[in-house]
From TrEMBL:
<dbReference type="Pfam" id="PF14399">
    <property type="entry name" value="BtrH_N"/>
</dbReference>
<feature type="domain" description="Butirosin biosynthesis protein H N-terminal">
    <location>
        <begin position="14"/>
        <end position="142"/>
    </location>
</feature>
<dbReference type="Pfam" id="PF16169">
    <property type="entry name" value="DUF4872"/>
</dbReference>
<dbReference type="InterPro" id="IPR026935">
    <property type="entry name" value="BtrH_N"/>
</dbReference>
<protein>
    <submittedName>
        <fullName>BtrH N-terminal domain-containing protein</fullName>
    </submittedName>
</protein>
<feature type="domain" description="DUF4872">
    <location>
        <begin position="155"/>
        <end position="324"/>
    </location>
</feature>
<dbReference type="InterPro" id="IPR032369">
    <property type="entry name" value="DUF4872"/>
</dbReference>
Length: 333
């Protein structure tokens, strides 16, 4: 068995930040999960629906791997990415890193991982690989999935080779700290303002605050949109609250990030953003509860209420991001 020494196999709430935490702690950088999420400008919103989809999907973060790229840029980390269509080369790429006593991040389809009890295809799942033997790969996943876990090499190969939405070509990656990395507090303001600017000025109506407003209008049609409302609506609510989002569609994580930032930055704009994202987190959980209840009750009134909550959320988050976009390195202007 080959394993990386001195691994801190803490499982977090979200897959990508969990893997990033493993890789960075091995480099001597120990940041909280909310700080990793926030410095990676991870918060977003997308209303995603198409004829090929069984049911609409609400995404609360930037697309897979953008968070990793953003974080590497924010902390001046060297990000080494490998992709290939060859399964053999893909395994050689990661085995070489483990053999050099370093953990490696993998993007794959969680459907094929043997320790996953909920079998849903998700090609944007990220794990940290820290060891292997003749039969199994040893990974760190979220706390919800078990933290330090194992899956067969065969299942790992299937997960990495999967194709479909959000998948990557056997993507693996490492992070290396530079000799004099910047203090994270120096990168707080650029990370927040970049996230706010993208949220406030989305290129299409499905994204950012415009996407939340659109979701508020369309959620009222979900009983008619669903093939099986008793299955589809509670599943949508479950994904918002429990599918690695940290609760409230990633708003809990971003709220906690902003709260941590107040220890480094004295800013009225930051405090306004924190107050509003605290409210938004509560509202997202309320919306999820109403959506789940509509699936059980079959009542369109529950969805009308959920739509009203989402309408409020569009306003609350727009106001929050407007305040946060006004941040400057030396505090409020």
């Amino acid at each position: 068995m080959t394993t990386v020494g001195d691994i801190d196999a803490r499982g977090g709430q979200h897959c990508e930040t969990t893997a990033l935490g493993v890789l960075l702690r091995h480099q001597g950088i120990d940041l909280s999960e909310p700080m990793l999420f926030g410095l990676g400008s991870g918060l977003s919103f997308l209303y995603w629906d198409s004829k090929s989809m069984g049911f609409p999907f609400l995404a609360g973060r930037v697309k897979p791997f953008d968070l990793t790229r953003n974080l590497a840029a924010a902390l001046d980390l060297e990000l080494q990415v490998e992709e290939t269509t060859s399964p053999r080369k893909a395994w050689r790429n990661v085995a070489a890193v483990i053999d050099a006593d370093r953990p490696v991040g993998l993007q794959l389809d969680s459907y094929h991982l043997e320790y996953f009890t909920s079998k849903v295809h998700f090609g944007g799942h990220v794990v940290a690989l820290y060891g292997y033997d003749d039969r199994d790969a040893h990974l760190v996943d979220t706390a919800q999935q078990g933290g330090a876990v194992s899956t067969s090499l065969t299942s790992l190969a299937e997960a990495r080779a999967a194709r479909g939405p959000m998948t990557a070509a056997h993507r693996s990656f490492t992070l290396t700290a530079t000799r004099n990395p910047p203090p994270p507090r120096e990168r707080i303001v650029p990370a927040i303002t970049a996230c706010a600017d993208a949220f406030l000025d989305p290129p299409i109506a499905n994204l950012g605050h415009r996407g939340i407003e659109k979701a508020g209008k369309l959620v009222r049609t979900w009983l008619r949109r669903a093939d099986d409302p008793q299955r589809d609506l509670p599943q949508a609510a479950l994904l918002m609250e429990q599918a690695g989002t940290g609760g409230a569609l990633f708003r809990n994580l971003y709220r906690d990030f902003l709260a941590a930032c107040t220890h480094h930055l004295d800013s009225g704009h930051l405090r306004t953003g924190l107050t509003l994202y605290t409210e938004a987190a509560t509202l997202w959980t309320e919306a999820a509860t109403l959506i789940a209840r509509a699936g059980t009750s079959g009542s369109e009134q529950d969805l009308v209420q959920a739509g009203a909550v989402l309408h409020d959320l569009s306003r609350v988050e727009r106001e929050a991001m407007r305040a946060l976009s006004r941040l400057r390195p030396r505090g409020p202007h």
